[in-house]
Each structure stands twice: as C-alpha cells, then as structure tokens.
Amino acid sequence: AAQAGQGFSLQQPQDKVSVAVGETLTLRCTTSGTAEPGPVKWLKGWGSGYKTIYDQKMKDPFSRVTRAVNESNTDFTIHIRNAQPEDTGTYYCVKFVKADSGVDEVSHHGRGTEVSVYETALVPGMVAAAVVLCFLLLILLGLFVALCMYRRKRQGRVGSPCPARTGATGSFSSVPLRCCAGTPSTPSEVLDAESSHLPSQQSSKEENDIHYADLQPLPPAPWHGRSPGTAPTEYASLRTAAK
After folding, report:
1. Distance CA 96, CA 88 (A)
2. How does DSSP classify residue 65?
3. CA distances (Å), 218 to each of 145, 167, 173, 230, in order?
4. Can you give the residue ranges of the Ig-like domain (predicted)?
C-alpha cells in the first residue's frame, strides 16, 4: 500500500452489527491526521470479489447508502436504508491514494465489520405454528379419551346382569340373569317353566318377554254361586322387555 500523509489513521470500531429486515444499517468509520489526496470508500468483501458500497467521489441520489455527516473530511460513517438479507457480509472502510500511474491504491483500511440481517417475521410465525399444533394435539387427545370412556360405558351397559325377582317376598334376589330369553343352559329356562302355568292368552306373547306368576290362595270369604270345594286363586304377570 502506498504511504499516506504523516500521522494519518483510520478507525473502524464495529466488529459485528445485526439488524432486522427493513431497518437502517449504520457502519461507522472515522479518520484523523493529514491524508494524501484520494477518496474514502466502503467495500463489501475483500480481494477479487469485493463490491463498492460507497464512494466519496460518486453522488447517487437514488442510492440506499448515505453519509451520516455530509461533506465531512474525518467522519465517513454511512447509513444503509431498508436492509435486506442480501446485505449480509463483511464491510471495510478503505482510504485510497493516487499512485504515480493515476490509479487509486489502498493506503489504510479498517478491520472489517461483520453484518447480519435477520427476518423478524420468522420467530412469531414459528411460535404461532407451534401453538396451533399443540392446540390440535390437545383436541385429538381429548376426543380419544372421550371415545374410550364412551366405549367402556357402553360395554358396561351391555354386559350388566339383570336381577331376578323371587315369588315369596316380591324382592329382587342376587341371582344374575342375562336378559336374553331362549338361551340354552341359562336361568331363562326356569322362567319358561314357570310361565307354563299362566293362562293360554299369556303364552302368545313375544318370546323376548319374561313372565312371572305367583299363585296364592285367597283368604276364605263367602261367595255365592261358587261350586263347593273350589279354592279361589289369583295370578300376577310381570313383563320386562329383554335387552
């Protein structure tokens, strides 16, 4: 690099800068001392692949890059408006001087500022997606639990035994009877045998009905016109639809 003026120095204090998309990126650079003729530029990258971001000699009113202090000879801080992901990279503040050949040569440059541009919409979007997913999982879990409880309750109703009623006291006994008339080797055969003593019109009922008869003598009472030696009786029928 060519020698600059005596006592000249260049400071680029920022090591890393991070901004969100759409915000303004600020890159700081200051100089001190006397410099030889030549512009100060901002370069993105170094070596053969660099790109000129700001040139002191060029004026572009439509550029996103502007000086923080216009026409200053010591403060070369710049602003980059509306930062985009493609602005990510390393930026260098560079002092050039005129060589004997007339070409600008590097005299001094800063250490470089690493710039990163992040998307602010990604974080809320990911959080919202996670919340929706958790909500859907909770709904599915609740439906699964409700379905299991419904099926268990339904199975309990179908498989529950039916209590049998005794003829002597009229109360229910603890003998389990399946409510399925006509099943072989079940207590329903006993009920069929008892129901055979009912009058003939009761036998025409549906097979799924359960009949019970209780024949007991009535207390003696005067009854005119009854044949002597005939004891009055009564019967009762209880019909329950089998499930």
Report:
1. 24
2. E
3. 58, 16, 25, 11
4. 22-93
- Tell me the C-alpha distance between 211 and 113, whole Å: 98
Q: What's the DSSP call for residue 75?
A: B
For residue 171, give the amino acid letter. S
Q: Residue 82, by phi and psi: left (phi above 0), alpha (psi -120 to 50) or beta?
A: left
22: its two tokens: 């759409």
How many other CB atoms are there within 10 angstroms of residue 21's CB atom?
15
Q: What is the pLDDT of residues 50-92, one digit of tens each?
A: 999 999 888 787 889 999 998 899 999 999 999 999 999 999 9
Q: What is the rounded CA–CA span in Å between residue 194 and residue 237?
A: 11
Beta bridge partners of 113: 91
Q: Chain centroid to CA 53: how far?
A: 45
pTM here?
0.49
Q: How far apart are CA 156 and CA 56, in angstroms?
A: 88
Pairwise CA distance, residues 24 & 29, whole Å: 16
Dihedral angle sign, alpha carbons of residues 140, 141, 146, 152:
positive
Are residues 26 and 68 in contact, defined by beta-carbon separation less than 8 angstroms?
yes
- Three-state DSSP class for residue 147: helix
Q: Which two tokens stand for residue 119?
A: 């998307």
